[in-house]
Specification:
Elements lengths: L2 H20 L10 H17 L3 H5 L1 H10 L5 H18 L14 H11 L4 H51 L3 H11 L1 H43 L4 H8 L13
């Protein structure tokens, strides 16, 4: 589980709800079915219009990625690439077939399989770059989904508030009851703005961060695989790939 995501969400909710309670507010007054239905249902409906059913089905996977995203060890990947390069120099490219099933990343396995198949370097780069393009496209659909939801949510909140005010002003003659009803109408705006800024937009930005981290890791793998196919010296491969790491994290020898 991603500690930063959980900590940030809990901190924001605790600060807002705590301040509200300290001012004498009652939390149960915020959880009204009608405003929540307008904001959540309206936002999901409007966002669904802008996307496809396939993307909608992937929403649970996007949420899992935001809250339980994988971490990448550049050093372990570099070490593995160097080990593969050393094995290829000792036993030949076909010697990599033995370790192919143990390679954890599908993109990594595909690259090594292409090397084993004798794919020419320029063709190998083209294939792997095309794979990266389609990976980026899939990631951007999830980012865009939550970003659009973050845009629709406040508008749905305003819509809910307007509907509540129309109903209140048209059906209430008692001034005391009217004040309470007007206050309740603004709950929709609260939900709209709150969901946008505490959930939808932060999740979109978290998915963008996950995307950047994964693409950077896959680019490292691609450069290592291409260097391996080119027959570069394992030490030179390590030196080249260490440029993907910050200087303080670099380790020259295993």
């Amino acid at each position: 589980m991603d500690i930063a995501t959980i900590f940030g969400l809990v901190t924001a909710l605790a600060a807002i709800s705590g301040a509200y309670v300290l001012e004498g507010g009652q939390l149960d007054s915020v959880f009204l079915i009608s405003p929540m239905l307008i904001v959540i249902g309206g936002t999901l409906g409007a966002t669904t219009i802008t996307t496809s059913v396939q993307t909608l089905r992937q929403v649970p996977a996007y949420l899992r990625l935001a809250f339980w995203g994988a971490s990448y060890s550049y050093q372990e990947t570099i070490d593995l690439l160097v080990q593969l390069a050393e094995k290829a120099r000792r036993e030949g490219i076909l010697g990599l077939e033995v370790v192919l099933p143990t390679i954890p990343t599908p993109f990594f396995r595909k690259g090594i399989q292409l090397v084993i198949d004798g794919t020419e370097v320029t063709v190998l780069r083209e294939i792997l770059e095309t794979e990266l393009v389609y990976i980026e496209d899939r990631h951007k659909k999830g980012i865009a989904f939550f970003q659009k939801a973050g845009g629709f949510s406040p508008t749905m909140g305003i819509l809910g508030t307007v509907l509540g005010l129309v109903h209140t002003l048209g059906n209430t003659s008692d001034a005391g009851k009217m004040a309470t009803a007007i206050a309740g109408a603004f709950i929709a705006t609260l939900w709209g703005v709150g969901l946008a800024n505490l959930f939808f937009l932060p999740i979109s930005d978290k998915l963008r961060l996950r995307h950047e981290e994964e693409i950077a890791h896959l680019e490292l793998i691609m450069e290592g695989v291409i260097a391996l196919q080119s027959g570069d010296n394992p030490r030179n491969i390590r030196t080249r790939l260490l440029s993907f790491q910050a200087p303080r994290h670099r380790r020259q020898e295993v």
